[in-house]
Write a structure and sequence with these properties.
This protein is about 70% helix and about 0% strand. By secondary structure, the protein is mainly alpha-helical.
């Protein structure tokens, strides 16, 4: 149903309005859509797709309205078109790169944050969590490799690539910023674990 694709475009726009790093899930969504079902031909489909995406971005219209009503918190002050675009692309904050505020070796910073994430996962998941998630990966490899590759592609973009792009040193304040990005890997791990646990229950049922 193409309406599902339009719904995904709308939710994707909402996600971008909330946090720009949601764009890292875009390539995986395109991969899954192209490999799961052929897209309709014709201009009408793409016009509606762009329209649904634009509807998701409507929360940005709140910024000029809040500025006109003298909001007590107004860091970007999007009172002009250029300032609005600056707020839209978050040029000052540096959503996808923190190198203007930080620096150092990208690879050293990336490895440091990866170690922090791994230690967090080990503390939260323990050994059994990784075993169940590995079972889920194995089941997807056998039954739905397209979905597996899409999830792994998102995992790579969401963590190693983002950490390399952000170039944030492992200081307390930047660790808190990077930890917001842990939701993606944890969501993928949750999907793998759910599929693995389902496989485990099916195996028990056979006996």
């Amino acid at each position: 149903d193409v309406r599902l694709i339009w719904g995904m475009a709308f939710l994707f726009g909402l996600g971008v309005a909330h946090l720009h790093t949601i764009i890292l899930i875009g390539p995986s969504l395109v991969w899954l859509i192209l490999h799961k079902r052929p897209l309709p031909h014709g201009l009408a489909f793409w016009v509606r797709l762009v329209f649904a995406l634009g509807l998701g971005l409507l929360p940005y219209l709140y910024l000029p309205w809040a500025t006109a009503h003298h909001s007590p918190m107004n860091q970007t002050d999007p009172s002009t078109w250029s300032r609005f675009l600056e707020a839209f692309f978050r040029s000052r904050e540096g959503t996808l790169t923190l190198s203007r505020y930080a620096g150092g070796s990208r690879w050293i910073n990336m490895v440091a944050h990866t170690k922090i994430l791994i230690s967090t996962l080990i503390f939260d998941q323990k050994c059994i969590g990784f075993i169940i998630a590995s079972l889920g990966v194995w089941r997807l490899w056998l039954r739905d490799r397209v979905l597996l590759l899409g999830l792994l592609f998102y995992l790579i973009l969401n963590l190693p690539f983002f950490l390399w792009l952000a170039n944030a040193p492992p200081t307390p304040i930047f660790i808190q910023v990077i930890q917001k990005q842990y939701g993606g890997p944890l969501a993928v791990l949750a999907i793998f674990s759910a599929i693995g646990f389902s496989q485990f229950l099916q195996t028990l049922h056979r006996f």
